[in-house]
Amino acid sequence: MSKVAFNRVLRALASVWIAALFSSVAFSQGVSSIYSATSGPTLPSERGIESENYLAPTDFLLDASGDNFYVASEGLSQLRRVPTDGTTRAEGLDLSFKPFKLRFFPDETRVAAVGGLGEGKLAIVEVAKKADDGAISPVPMKLIAERVVGHSPADVCVKGTEDGKELVYVADRFADKVREIDAATGEELRAWETNREPFCMELTPDGKRLVVADRLTKMQANVSKSYAKVYIVELETGELKTVDLLNGNNALQDMALTPDGKFAFVSALLCSYSAITSQVSGGWIGENGLVCVDVENAQLVEVFFLDDAQLGAGNPWGVACSEDGKNLIVSLAGTDEIVFMPLEGVREIIAKRPSWARPGYGAYSYQSFAKGDVQFPLRVRVKFGFKGLRQLIARGDDVYALSYFDDVLCKATLKRNPPYKFFPDSYVAAEKPPRTAPGAEDADAEAASYAELCADLPDDPTVGAPLRFTKLETKLPLEGVEIERSFARLAPKPVLTTRRRGEIIFHDATACFEHWLSCVTCHPDARADGFNWDLLNDGTGNLKNAKSMLLSHETPPCMISGIRADAETAVRAGFTHILFMPYKEENASCVDDYLQALEPVPSPRLVNGELSESAKRGKGVFQRIGCATCHLGDYYTDLRLHDVDSKAPNDSIREFDTPTLIEVWRTAPYLNTGEYLTIRELLEKGKHGVKDGQFDELSKEEQDDLIEFVSSL
Fold it and tell me: Fewest CB atoms within 10 Å of the CB: 31, 353, 388, 540?
């Protein structure tokens, strides 16, 4: 029996034991609410992924009247309308793809939805009618157009023009482009190339500029600087301006503009990838914050850190500005919190930063109070305990946050009544998730109440229960400030599979000491982040490029040096040596299940899901010049270590793991050194596997065909 097969048998036995354990014992990885799905049992492993009928909301809108939410359900491939009156049932419209982001058209009678992996789609859905007097009233949702818009679109914006046209802007994530599309015809009018994975964007209120943020860095990893980028598109001229961020800024997730369009705030990490990963305390490995960009001048002007001295704000995601310009709000997807920041105070810090100081100089104070009279703090953190708090909507004094893993809509209402009086450590201490407010339903009663709402629903996945909020304990961060909390279910409480629970744990920063980071911090989507890291499993001073975890359980050994015998060992070492927390075997086994269930994203180079004619020719070249000697089989790896002349000066070894080539198109930079940004550079300059001149002897067409094949895997 092979080692891989033997590990599979062990994992299967472990899954049976874990299923039995979870059937009777409530479980959670870190800190979670008693209302969360993580507090319940896990489905037996044999039920598998086919049992995962989660709503999995990825984005939402609230119409101007406040009468209806529109929710993108990735899990059910639906657009849902959820009335806010508490009595009307939710209704859904099935889509042909998994929607990821939503945006209203200017008149709010239609919604633009984008999503899908591989062949990306844009759906235009009619949701309302506008009367002659301007009144807008909902109508049954109807798909009125569907367009193919590239590969895995990650965001969408819509604007009207003076000549009556409507333009849709799509972040074509894996084509590394932003596209401008005529909404009426689907014609692409213009496109702009970004560096790597445009992921979020916003139009300025005047419609003159489009602000775009790449998700990940695409720079050489063995140099002194590496960071993701932000772009300003001047829509009148078509000029694309680049905004350089701080060294280590990465994992840009969401964006909000101030109401005047002056500043863009983007949630981001600041990764200390060159530091020895000997601890996480104090943000040693990575910090969590917002980058602030001056939109008109296309400049980074400030970085605001969301962490506190001994309490990290792991994995910030959603960003919103209140319409009145008073509050800046951020969701912490890894710690189940939202953060309120006074926008006036934030802008004051920007205005007062000395010209000689780098961004971040004035925004690092943990003790966010002025001398003398107590001021509203720079950050107030509010715990909910629902997993995967991501997208936000700010409306008046209310903030709504979507829980991706719990299918829940959270609501926080900030009430200020100065003068303020400071409660020592009240807003920085680790907070337990709130329970119900006095007089409200307890957890059992809440579950029973929601079950009653669902009892008479038809057997139709497009019909949902009315939206009912359960009030939670009010947070009192300091005297003069109250934050009311409540939540409402968008679907029945999920019953987790081991795979889904593993996915939650992978994204859970409460599983890390002081909550600074999670597995996804360095492995977004369980892939690579583009940095070299100095892990301690092979000494110090020898940084190595992060690896994707796709197929890691099928292609041992693990780590780029092959230091871990298999993925199971690597997962458990990650809890201990990166998150600095003892792990539970049942949790680690769930992460194993999640990672093994990962499926490759189809390459943007494929044509209708198949190799292009060029790639087919390249497959022959791949075999002929010996690439298949090491990159063989279904996973294009021989599961061995090889000396490919990539030893760095401080490396103690010469041989490195042969990685799978599946999804190699999205894992730059390449080799253990992270030196090469493209496959062509790897072969042409790095002579990887072709040091005897095999690549140089090919014709230009053969070279292109070979690269096309490898980039199509």
Answer: 540
